[in-house]
Write a structure and sequence with these properties.
- The protein is of the alpha/beta class and 182 residues long.
- It has five helices and nine strands; from the N terminus they run βββαβαβββαβαβα.
- It has a single domain (2-178), classed as Aldolase class I (TIM Barrel), CATH 3.20.20.
- The chain has helices spanning 50-57, 78-86, 135-138, 156-165, 175-178; strands spanning 2-12, 22-28, 46-49, 64-68, 90-95, 108-111, 121-129, 142-150, 169-171.
- α2 (78-86) links the parallel β4 and β5 (90-95).
- The longest helix has 10 residues, at 156-165.
- The two termini are 29 Å apart.
- The mean pLDDT is 94.
- The structure holds iron/sulfur cluster.
- Residues 31, 33-35, 38, 40, 69-71, 96, 114 line the site of iron/sulfur cluster (SF4).
C-alpha cells in the first residue's frame, strides 16, 4: 500500500491552538475541492509506503505529526495511524471536513470547513473569514475551540473586530508566514 505524499517537512505549527509547536507535517497530495483562495501546492507527489513515511518522519526529533494536504482523509487509513501511534507519536489532522472521521488514533482534529462540510465536531474549527455570517459554523457544532483566520491575511482589522464582538471566537494568524518559515 502506497500513499501519494506531496512533502514531509519539519516546522512549527503556524495556526490555531498549537501555534508555535514543533511538528512533522505530512502533506498528502490531492483534494476533492478547488477553493479559489487555496494557497497550497499539493498536486505533485511521490509514492511512499508506510515504513518509508515513518523512516522519513523519524529523522526529526518531534514526536508530534500533523496529517495535512490537500485533503488527508482521502488517503489516511488506520494502518498508517496505528503505525505512528505504536511509535509513540501524537497525531493531528487538518481536514476540510467533507468526510466523516473516526477519531480512533487521532489526538487532535482541526476542521477548516469548506463547501458541503459534514464533520461538525472535533477539537478546533478554523474558519477563513471574509465577512460571512458565522451562524452555520456554530449552530449544532461541537468543537473545543473556534478560530477565525483572516482570508489571506488581508482583512485582519475586520477579523479582530469580529472576534471582539463575538468572543466565542479567537483570532488565528498564519504565524509561519509572518515570521517567514515554511
Ligand atoms: S480544501 Fe484546502 S487544500 Fe483543498 S482546495 Fe480548498 S484550501 Fe486547497
Amino acid at each position: 500500500m502506497s500513499y501519494k505524499i506531496n512533502e514531509i517537512f519539519y516546522s512549527l505549527q503556524g495556526e490555531g491552538h498549537f501555534v508555535g509547536t514543533p511538528m512533522v507535517f505530512i502533506r498528502f497530495s490531492g483534494c476533492n475541492l478547488k477553493c479559489s483562495y487555496c494557497d497550497t501546492s499539493h498536486e505533485t507527489f511521490e509514492l511512499m509506503d508506510r515504513e518509508t513515511i515513518l523512516d522519513t518522519v523519524s529523522q526529526y526529533p518531534a514526536k508530534r505529526v500533523v496529517f495535512t494536504g490537500g485533503e488527508p482523509t482521502l488517503q489516511l487509513d488506520d494502518l498508517l495511524l496505528r503505525l505512528f501511534t505504536e511509535q509513540g507519536y501524537k497525531l493531528h489532522i487538518e481536514t476540510n471536513g467533507t468526510s466523516q472521521l473516526t477519531p480512533r488514533y487521532l489526538d487532535w482534529v482541526t476542521v477548516s470547513p469548506k463547501e458541503n462540510w459534514v464533520l461538525k465536531k472535533g477539537d478546533e474549527l478554523k474558519v477563513i473569514y471574509s465577512g460571512q455570517s458565522l451562524d452555520k459554523y456554530t449552530d449544532g457544532t461541537q468543537f473545543k475551540y473556534y478560530y477565525l483566520q483572516p482570508q489571506s491575511g488581508s482583512n485582519i482589522a475586520e477579523t479582530v473586530a469580529k472576534v471582539k464582538a463575538d468572543p466565542m471566537w479567537k483570532l488565528s494568524l498564519q504565524m509561519h508566514k509572518l515570521i517567514g518559515i515554511d
